[in-house]
Specification:
Order of helices and strands: EHEHEHEEH
Largest sheet: 5 strands, mixed
Structural class: alpha/beta
CATH class: Alpha Beta
Number of strands: 5
Distance between the termini: 15 Å
Number of domains: 1
Number of helices: 4
Length: 125
């Protein structure tokens, strides 16, 4: 299931830019961070895809959501200018940003190429 992040939980689970100048991933599993807003139609199209992937790949990666209206500091820290924007965060490498409502195939491709996640969770049907 997707999890909503605040600035505080972002610091714990992804990256604390106030503590570290250089990128240092705080999580254990690679993740996708969806920067969105409730009023954004393309965001609403992407949401069920990310929800589905978060269940299919549970235990392999995490899917987080950041509401850019509520977490403006977080959005500006990553230079979010348009939504949806997705940050693909591998466990041991630098994150990569994708802008726009990506189709499922493109998200799966980025999961494989950027995150190194290829296999679904065992219990997913």
């Amino acid at each position: 299931m997707t999890e909503h992040l605040t600035k505080e939980t972002f610091f714990e689970k992804v990256f604390n830019w106030e503590k570290n100048q250089n990128w240092k991933f705080e999580g254990e599993l690679p993740c996708i961070i969806d920067f969105y807003a409730d009023w954004c139609q393309p965001c609403k199209m992407v949401a069920p895809i990310l929800e589905e992937l978060s269940e299919e790949y549970a235990g392999k990666m995490n899917v987080y959501k950041v509401n850019t209206d509520q977490e403006q500091e977080l959005a500006s820290a990553f230079g979010i200018r348009s939504i949806p924007s997705m940050l693909f965060v591998p466990a041991n490498d630098k994150p990569q940003m994708a802008v726009g409502a990506l189709p499922k195939e493109s998200i799966l491709k980025a999961m494989e190429e950027v995150l190194g996640v290829t296999e679904k969770a065992e219990d997913a049907s």
